[in-house]
Hints:
The chain is mainly α. About 50% of the residues lie in helices and about 5% in strands. The protein contains nine helices and two strands; from the N terminus they run αααββαααααα. The protein has helices at about 25-45, 50-65, 70-75, 115-125, 145-160, 170-185, 185-195, 200, 210-225; strands spanning about 95-100, 105-110. It has a two-stranded antiparallel sheet with strand order 1-2.
Amino acid sequence: MVMYREPRQRAKRHEYAVTQEHILKPQEKSAVLAGIEAIKTLSLERGSRRMAYTAMITKFLLESGLRSCEACRIKMRDLPLRHLRPGLKGRGDGRIIVRHGKGNKERYVELSPQFILELDQFVGRWRRGARPHSPLFESERGGALSYSALRNKVVRCSVLVHVPKLRPHLCRHTHATYLYHITKDIVFVKRQLGHASLSMTNLYTKLLEIDRSEQLSMLYSAATCKTTNVNVQVT
């Protein structure tokens, strides 16, 4: 007699959840941006490479939405700077080349003109003379910055700007959420993040609940944030 057995059902995969605790709220985002500007000023005053890296790495993650491993692998030739990528018109095409994204896929990530200028200034001050195949963020021993070192820079920034929850992947979630609420273009956000499907990108469409006046102020927060009355304590 042949016994019949019910087919074994596959366990459901745990659904990845992104909540409001995984992003910076408008007030927190403004505090982080203002704090980063203060850190940049102090780095120039003190000639501190470490402080400059702390500020730029955090700002880079917020502005690009890259995964930590992708940011560590960005090389000088991948930046949208004319003197680093011959053949670009004007100041460049405004896009980073991510050559080894998730699944080893290549994609382009667009940046704001204001941040491209900041990148240019950072490279000119702290990465002058770097070769095209050199990493953007170089470790103190040379070579690309490791994930743990990059994470430590962001954690350090979180302490300086008094926003404890600031972490590398939170920067990615924050970038995706604000980008969608400004553009309302889910396909563009998907392309920026390098998602394989829209189902993951859709997680960012309902996280931010703010009024219209706050939305308008967000458009200019990065360009107009002031460093006055920002208590950044560096010891």
